[in-house]
Every structure is written in C-alpha cells, then in structure tokens.
Amino acid sequence: MQIDSDIVERKRNRVEALALTWINILNRVVVKDKNLFELNPSLLVKVINHYSDDLDVLKKRYNIQNRAQVPKIAGLMVASILKYRPLIPRDCLQLGIDENEINEMLAVYHVSWHLCLRTI
Hints:
120 residues, mainly alpha, two-stranded antiparallel ribbon, 4 helices, 2 strands, 64% helix
C-alpha cells in the first residue's frame, strides 16, 4: 500500500499539471470563447480525487507495483476531466455556452502536452 505522502504528492502534481495546461491554453492556443471560462477549484479537486481513486483501483486490479503506464494514466485523466468538466462559464446566463467544447480541449491538451513532456 502506498504511503499517504506519495498519494498527496501525486495529487499535487496532477493539480499543478492541469492548472498549467489551462494557463497554456489561455496564453498560447487559439480557442473560441476561452476567456468566458474559468477553472473551478472544487471541480478540479473532484477530477484529481477521481483520477487518484481510479489509479489505485487499476494498480490493485492488475497488480502494478510501481508506476502505471503513461497511456493508462492519460486515459484515466481524460475520463476524469470529461466526467466533472472543471472549466465552467464565468457567466452562466450567456446563451449557447453549454455547447462549448472547452473541457474536451482541456483533456486533449493536458494529455498531449504532458505525454510529450513525459510528466504525466
């Protein structure tokens, strides 16, 4: 069983990576209406906790002793992001805002940037 400090460190790394991805999208990527959204801290914590719980289940199920393979981790993060959708509209009254695919872009960019950097 992992030590609690390892789990806390894993979660902290995931929070930092996801927040950094959002900052990179805001600063570098041309995305329609990206400034209409913000990263919700409460939903961000849910994303990370769900991912961490799923990773623990995966490791137990397949008897993974050390680090899980990068594609497995990437899939867990994408699923968690799309389940909780941590990017929320700043103005919930804006028409058509619910049709925006910004959370999908967050998931794709998060995985692609961190797979390239091998820090996922």
